[in-house]
Every structure is written in structure tokens, then in C-alpha cells.
Amino acid sequence: MRSSAALAPGSSIDIAAQEEAMARSMWRITLQRLKRSKTAMIGLTIVILLLLVALLADVVAPYSPTETTPASISPPTWQNLMGTDLLGRDVLSRVIHGSRVSVYVGVVSILFAIFIGIPLGTVAGFYGGHVDQVIMRLMDIILAFPIFLLAIVIMVILEPNTTNVVLALAIVRIPILARIVRGSVLSVKETEYIEAVKALSLSQIRVLGRHVLPNCLAPIIVTSTLNIGNAIIIEASLSFLGLGTQPPTPTWGWDLKQNLTLIELNPWITIFPGLAILVTVLAFNLLGDGLRDALDPRLKA
């Protein structure tokens, strides 16, 4: 415990200043570690390029993704770098525009899950008791179902479209984030630092927002980054089953399904959408692994 002088009136200013200085130091060290990780930098570079391609798809893509031509099932040429599909559409243009759906669904669904999961996990971990029991039992019920199966059930109940895919993926991710946040809050709230803050008679909301949650950011950031890649895989799988974003909007999963019968004689039609999924998920996983190593408290001096 801190001395009584540390808990005297006005000491909250000193604690806040110390906390801010420690936070700046921690993130500075984290950034340095992240820069030293080659795999994390590769993942970050690919993620940034993917975001730029998704945002500038209309400018980057050489053709409209829905434009059909008589040159169907054409192999890669200088005119069509990834060839054309069964309807004569440019595969490269469809891969580029398909990145929009994947990035949107992956990022927005995780943000939605964070928006719901963090408050639930924080309240459960900080207050405990019956509140904790009720919240975590609800989370356990959702986690009792396989993630992909639950996403399929939700999409069968709802109308297949991009918005509902985001909703379905957010629902299956909320319990994971809630449990991680709860565990972090349980660990942080027992530290001497938080006990000292509580002794200052600050409001519980301020204690949570200013002192508890900032110390739980590391696992939230790592888990969220890794889950974006997983969300992209599930989105592609739902589109493959016809339960995701509907045509004519291009998606990587739908392009895989639509041209699957041509894979033996015309493999480029399915290889490139498949590679797009592989590279995207790998990039987010590399970045997530790098963040985990950089934020791991066991690596701190």
C-alpha cells in the first residue's frame, strides 16, 4: 500500500501524472519492440496496403468488377493480369473490389464486438457477485455453440446481406472479448495502484475509465487484431455458402464458389481470390503476433 501522504488530498494529481508518464513510456517501448519485429512490420505493411486498396478500389481497379466481356475464362494476359472468369469479368478488378467487403466486415464487426464486449467484461470483472454471474453465464451460453455454426444460424434467421454478416460476426465475438476484458480487470483491480486510487474517494466510473481500463488495453488490442483475420475467414465462408454479401457485389468467398468447378482446367479463377484471403488473414495474424510480443509484460525490463 502507498503511504498516507500519497493518499492525502490533492495526491490524485500526482497519481494521474505518474500514470500518464508510465503510459507514455510503455507505449514508446512497445512501438520500439514492434519496429524491431520484421514479421510484424511485414504484416503492418500488408494491412496498410490492403486498406489503401479497399479505399481506392474504384481508382486502382482497371475495370468495373461487374463488367462482362466475350473473353470468358481467359488466362492471365497484359490486358487482364489475373485473367477473366466464366462471365468474362476481370478477376483482378473483382479481387480488388472484394477487399472492400472483407475489410469492412472484418474491422466493423470487431469494433462492434469491442463496443459491447468491453463494457460487459469491465462491469463483470469490477463489480463481481451476481452481476458477474449473470453476464458471464450469458457469455457462456453463446460460447457453447461453435462460432461458425452460430454465424450460419444467425444468417439463416436474418436476411443474407453485408450488414447482417457484420452483426452475426460481432455477436459471436462479443463473449470472447468480454471474457478477456473481465480477466484483465480482475487482475488489475487487485493491484496496489488501484487500491490507492480507490482510497481517494473517486467515483467508480472515473476509476474504471481513467485507471482500470487503460491498463487492460494490451490484451484487447492483440485479441482484436487477431480476430479481424478470423472474421474475414468466416465472412468468406458465409459468402461461399451463399449466406453472406449477395451478388452483384464482388466478394472473395462468392468468387471461389462460383468458379470452383473450373479449378482443374482454369485454376487462376479461384487461385487469386484464395490467395487474397490467405495473404490478408496472414497479415493480420503477423501483426497481432507482433503486438502480442511487444505488449507482453514478461518481456519488460
From TrEMBL:
Where is the protein found, in the record's own terms? Cell membrane
Q: Which membrane topology describes this protein? A: Multi-pass membrane protein
Looking at the UniProt entry, the stretches that span the membrane are 40-61, 101-126, 138-158, 164-181, 216-245, 265-288
Q: Which GO terms describe its biological process?
A: transmembrane transport
Q: Name one GO cellular component term.
A: plasma membrane
CDD domains membership: TM_PBP2 (cd06261)
Q: Which UniProt keywords apply?
A: Cell membrane, Membrane, Transmembrane, Transmembrane helix, Transport
Q: Where is the ABC transmembrane type-1 domain?
A: 99-288
Q: Tell me which family the UniProt entry assigns to this protein.
A: Belongs to the binding-protein-dependent transport system permease family.
PANTHER family the record matches: D,D-DIPEPTIDE TRANSPORT SYSTEM PERMEASE PROTEIN DDPC-RELATED, OLIGOPEPTIDE TRANSPORT SYSTEM PERMEASE PROTEIN APPC
* Protein name per Swiss-Prot or TrEMBL: ABC transmembrane type-1 domain-containing protein
What high-level taxonomic lineage is stated for the organism? Bacteria, Pseudomonadati, Nitrospinota/Tectimicrobiota group, Candidatus Tectimicrobiota, Candidatus Entotheonellia
